[in-house]
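Contributing new records

If you add data, match the layout below exactly. Sequence lines come first and carry their own label; structure lines follow with theirs. Keep one chain per record. Anything else will be rejected by the validation script.
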Amino acid sequence: MDEIISTVLAKGDLAHLALFMWASGASTAALLLLRELAAANKRYNAFVTEIAHLNRLFRDKD
């Protein structure tokens, strides 16, 4: 990675390096956000399933 940065800096392409770093960071943040959203969706689905199960238990007792 240091060789790439040295080459880019030697050619004077600092703007491209900054844009690449920003895009990499934004992509990583989006990936982490989607992973957390998927995990939250699974937890919510498990919660709703358990509530439905409890409702069935109480309904069948009557």
